[in-house]
């Protein structure tokens, strides 16, 4: 079966020092419906990789394919971005109201706005009571982050690129977003590539781990296997405290949680099936710089 997204020998030079490589030899694929945690220390290039996958930045080498079709052969990047949607770490609201943001995809593509689905999604992320006429710019950071996520989900992309999307959320909101993404993935069959520094979140909500270190994709593994026993020394150092007690993640909590296995579920509104995909939606409304995307 053809993978949904494939990268072959992807390479990126450092934007700040073009003669130095940020990462290279990156080869892996994402299957439809898979949930992949992209892990690694700060500055490895995780956000950069997501932006390359969203055609917002160009790779410096290698190939990127969707359904086996190379990115560079897409005459229209928005056709790619309609299917592969990036949710940025720093949410960017479009000018106008909350409703304008929620309607962005349908406005841009002339497709019907699924208000019932938008309301269900806003409720699921704990924003049922937020006024849709409020200026989006006035929302708090956490409200913007959740609104940006709902805006992305309304596109019904096949692959969600999630960049630390719960980083600025309180614990209750974080639980709600995690539960929503679990439900969404199960019901819509959407795949996720999820950058997170929260190893418990990765272990609970992702099936697969991609681990980046030293400018390479060092491990592609089942999440259970990765957290039980990383295959590389770098992976072991990443998930386990060192001699000084420093830890790159929350390995002890993960270790305690994993033997029982299986994702744990948190409370969240169950989504009902909407009337159908928002065909023709594009990512042009999904954040600053999206229109400036580049082919690999
Ligand atoms: N537009 C840019 N201009 C200059 N340097 C950049 C740019 N974008 C990324 N970088 C640099 O590339 C490196 C990788 O950045 P990136 O944000 O992709 O890493 P990351 O793994 O997502 O980090 P973190 O986990 O801290 O978010 C960093 O050193 C960063 O400073």
Descriptive overview:
- By secondary structure, the chain is an alpha/beta fold.
- It has a domain at 5-88 and 157-271: Rossmann fold (3-Layer(aba) Sandwich).
- Helix content is 31%, strand content 20%.
- The protein has helices spanning 46-53, 77-81, 98-102, 104-109, 115-124, 141-153, 171-188, 199-205, 223-228, 233-239, 251-257; strands at 5-13, 21-30, 35-40, 61-66, 69-70, 84-87, 159-163, 191-195, 208-213, 216-222.
- Mean pLDDT is 83; it is low at 247-253 and 257-296.
- Adenosine-5'-triphosphate binds next to helix 1.
Short description:
This protein is α/β, with parallel strands linked by helices and 296 residues long. The protein has helices spanning 46-53, 77-81, 98-102, 104-109, 115-124, 141-153, 171-188, 199-205, 223-228, 233-239, 251-257, and strands at residues 5-13, 21-30, 35-40, 61-66, 69-70, 84-87, 159-163, 191-195, 208-213, 216-222.
Q: Could you give the order of strands across the largest sheet? A: 6-7-8-3-9-10
The proportion of residues forming helix, as a percent range, comes to 25-40%
Total strand segments? 10
Small-molecule components bound: adenosine-5'-triphosphate
**Which superfamily, in CATH terms, is the homologous superfamily of the domain at 5-88 and 157-271?**
P-loop containing nucleotide triphosphate hydrolases
Flag low-confidence runs. Answer: 247-253, 257-296
Q: Span between N and C termini? A: 24 Å
Could you tell me the CATH topology label of the domain at 5-88 and 157-271: Rossmann fold
Our count of helices gives: 11
User: What portion of residues belong to β-strands?
Assistant: 15-25%
- CATH class of the domain at 5-88 and 157-271, named Alpha Beta
Order of helices and strands: EEEHEEHEHHHHEHEHEEHHH
Please summarize the sheet with the most strands. Answer: 6 strands, mixed
Categorize the overall geometry: globular
- Nearest-integer average pLDDT: 83
Structural class: alpha/beta
Rg from C-alpha positions?
Answer: 19 Å
Which CATH architecture of the domain at 5-88 and 157-271?
Answer: 3-Layer(aba) Sandwich
